[in-house]
Write a structure and sequence with these properties.
Elements: H1 2-15, H2 27-31, E1 40-41, H3 44-53, E2 57-62, H4 67-77, H5 80-89, E3 91-96, H6 101-113, E4 122-126, E5 132-136, H7 150-163, H8 165-180, H9 193-204, H10 223-236, H11 239-254, E6 268-269, E7 277-278, E8 281-282, H12 283-300, H13 303-319, E9 330-331, E10 334-335, E11 338-339, H14 347-354, H15 358-364, H16 390-407, E12 415-416, E13 419-420, H17 421-437, H18 441-457, E14 466-470, E15 473-477, H19 480-497, H20 500-516, H21 550-565, H22 568-581, H23 593-604, E16 606-611, H24 617-627, E17 634-639, E18 662-667, E19 670-671, H25 678-686
Length: about 700
């Protein structure tokens, strides 16, 4: 034993003297494998080596599509002198935030507790035990932007560690106590619908009345917030709520944040008009936007939204899908070390490619000699928001195809081709619902293929999910978000297809969550499992980030399971999750949209049951009527001949009328009369 221990320490000391990222499967970590920095991967062994040497840890967290991560890498991590400082004084650890969102969440919160704004790259200084004592985000190589130079930061932190351990320990203790409170949200009760209405009205006042979006620059999609406002309009019929959502989607759809040639939305806009994007494209943003645009299109029938939905899904199928079905994570903002270079155009390029057709295109897409961003043109239709006549739109589509094919010859932005269970769940769910609404079985096929990929390649032998997959390797412990988003995707697929294996998968995953993630003391779910060993704290929150919170999504999942199975335990658990976090509404309701939206589904589900053959024309006609209405709280069950509903379902025992496909619409314990005519069904749903 003693010999093996000495050998282990020697091996780890040797590895600390070199960059070990070459053995990673993360595209982000592989971007840094040739840095002169002696980067290590996060692991229990790395922490043990830091303890053995009693060296502080410099933790750098980022992701492959992050522009400022690339900037800091070029300026500092590729600089031999700066790398030498890092190697001399620190154990340097590089983490892909998308592979380890649990670690990112802990240290982002620690940075916030230090009074700093979070973001990426995240730069944190930790004790050898992994406990934070100071940090920041991007640091330039020399003092500028009001920030100290990174070499000065390194020297200061090294000196503090060597000579002022009392200050370090003081920060560590304060942060440790504050991080422990991550698992203690303010409790409350269920959320009344009138409270939801007031929140929706208050959020509507924050929406830019001219350009849409929340506040001023920068502007993020904030999909959960706009779904909350849309739901508020459905309840109250307050037109300012409806207008806030439609205006926002319209400006995003015509802005530079949208890729008018290839489809898909960028992460956010740096200006208030949605003109200038931060050019990376993330799977999760596009999944959420497809879902929201579909929900709104069901009401407005806006051709613009339909076009953007179709183009975005086409982009996902063309550029973001593994040959075996899973969805990739992101496209980089940069190509050839320049942000946005792949996407922007000079007027000369447009004139050369389009010839005499260029004047119309330039007028509609805002192309000028001087450009609209750093001397180049970001294509957009903000100056000509309305769609043109059919002939002109066809001409513009042909022009876009010419530019798209010309752009394909450029150096492409990097593709982060890892596959994440939680983000895949978001896109699978969006495609399941959109495929049904637009009667696109090919979209549904995409969703089913991705679901099969996750369940075949990312499941462990013990029946639990892995968080990430790349190059044949499934890795990293699953988070709450993985199970929540995949469970919701499974239930939406069940509602769409009637296949019980999807329902069964969701129920199995809930069993795992209840066993390993449930807080038996305070209710709600922890972000990480009880056997995740290399973290310093277990967070429990319902606050949304760029993606919906796992606890918020779980209210939706548990509510659906209750209505679909009739098992009261699911309803009780959903209510306990809501109560575990609803007290936070008094502090700040803005980041709790997923929780609020799930709580509305729990209280106000519209259950629609169709008794009939799923392949019969009369069943399909009823389905078209259902999907033609915007129903955020829809829960659908298709009951084929010979099948039955749970005994306590309000429509249990009700049979088809005159051997025709028959719909029953139920709210609470009360169901409608049997409905066999699609028009009458649509009229009934429109009143709800």
């Amino acid at each position: 034993m003693k010999g093996r221990g000495n050998s282990f320490i020697l091996e780890r000391q040797m590895s600390l003297d070199r960059n070990t990222l070459g053995s990673s499967t993360s595209p982000y970590l592989l971007q840094h494998r040739d840095n002169p920095v002696h980067w290590q991967q996060w692991s229990s062994e790395t922490l043990a080596a830091a303890r053995a040497e009693q060296k502080p840890i410099l933790l750098s967290v980022g992701y492959a599509a992050c522009h400022w991560c690339h900037v800091m890498a070029r300026e500092s991590f590729e600089d031999p002198a700066i790398a030498a400082l890092m190697n001399e004084h620190f154990v340097n650890v590089k983490v892909d935030r998308e592979e380890r969102p649990d670690l990112d969440a802990i240290y982002q919160h620690a940075l916030a507790l230090l009074g700093e704004h979070g973001g990426w790259p995240l730069t944190m200084f930790l004790t050898p035990d992994g406990e934070p004592f100071w940090g920041g985000t991007y640091f330039p190589p020399t003092p500028r932007f009001g920030r100290p130079g990174f070499p000065d930061v390194l020297r200061t932190m090294a000196a503090v560690w060597q000579s002022e351990r009392d200050k370090v320990e003081k920060n560590v203790v304060a942060l440790r106590e504050a991080l422990a409170r991550l698992a203690s949200p303010e409790r409350g009760g269920l959320i009344p619908l009138e409270v939801m209405d007031r929140i929706a009205e208050r959020l509507t006042r924050e929406v830019d009345p001219f350009n849409g979006g929340i506040g001023n620059a920068p502007k993020f999609p904030q999909v959960g917030v706009f779904e909350l406002i849309w739901r508020g309009w459905r309840r109250t019929k307050a037109m300012p709520m409806r207008d806030a959502v439609t205006r926002t989607l319209e400006h995003m759809a015509q802005g530079g944040i949208y890729d008018h040639l290839g489809g898909g939305f960028a992460r956010y806009a740096v200006d208030e008009r949605w003109l200038v994007p931060h050019f990376e494209k993330m799977l999760y943003d596009n999944a959420q936007l497809v879902a929201l645009m579909t929900m709104v299109w069901q009401e407005t029938r806006a051709p613009l939204l339909e076009q953007r939905i179709c183009e975005t899904i086409e982009w996902v199928g063309r550029e973001m899908t593994h040959p075996e079905g899973g969805y990739f994570s992101s496209l980089d903002a940069d190509s050839e070390h320049e942000e946005g270079k792949f996407y922007v155009w000079s007027e000369h390029e447009i004139d050369k490619l389009l010839g005499p057709r260029s004047p119309l295109f330039k007028r509609i897409y805002g192309v000028t000699p001087e450009g609209n961003w750093e001397g180049k043109n970001i294509l957009n239709r903000l100056g000509a928001m309305s769609l043109l006549a059919e002939k002109e739109e066809a001409d513009l589509a042909a022009d876009r195809a010419v530019l798209f094919h010309a752009r394909a010859e450029r150096v492409r932005p990097g593709l982060d081709d890892k596959i994440l269970a939680d983000w895949n769940g978001l896109m699978i769910g969006a495609l399941a619902r959109s495929g049904a609404v637009f009667d696109r079985p090919d979209w549904l096929d995409l969703a089913v293929a991705a679901f099969s990929f996750v369940t075949s390649k990312m499941m462990r032998d013990d029946g639990r999910l892995s968080h990430a997959w790349r190059d044949g390797v499934a890795a990293h412990p699953a988070t709450l978000d993985d199970y929540a988003n995949m469970s919701r995707a499974a239930l939406l697929l069940f509602e769409t297809t009637g296949r019980r294996d999807f329902l069964q998968a969701a129920e199995r995953w809930i069993e795992v969550l209840d066993r390993h993630y449930w807080d038996s003391v305070g209710d709600g779910y922890f972000f990480t499992a009880d056997d995740t060993s290399d973290i310093i704290a277990r967070a429990k929150t319902a606050q949304d980030g760029p993606v919906p919170s796992g606890n918020g999504t779980m209210v939706d999942v548990l509510a659906r399971l209750y209505f679909l199975t009739g098992k009261d335990a699911y309803r009780e658990k959903a209510e306990r999750v809501v109560a575990a976090f609803s007290g936070e509404l008094q502090r700040n309701f803005f980041p709790l949209a997923a929780l609020i939206n799930g709580a509305e589904l729990l209280q106000s589900a519209v259950q629609v049951v169709i008794r009939g053959d799923p392949e019969a024309d009369d069943t399909k006609a009823l389905l078209r009527a259902i999907y033609g209405t915007t129903l955020p709280n829809l829960i659908l069950q298709i009951v084929p001949p010979g099948a039955s509903l749970p005994a306590d379902h309000p429509a249990a025992g009700k049979e088809p009328e005159a051997k025709r496909a028959t719909a029953y619409v139920c709210e609470g314990p009360v169901c409608s009369l049997p409905l066999t005519e699609p028009a009458i069904l649509a009229e009934d749903l429109g009143r709800r």
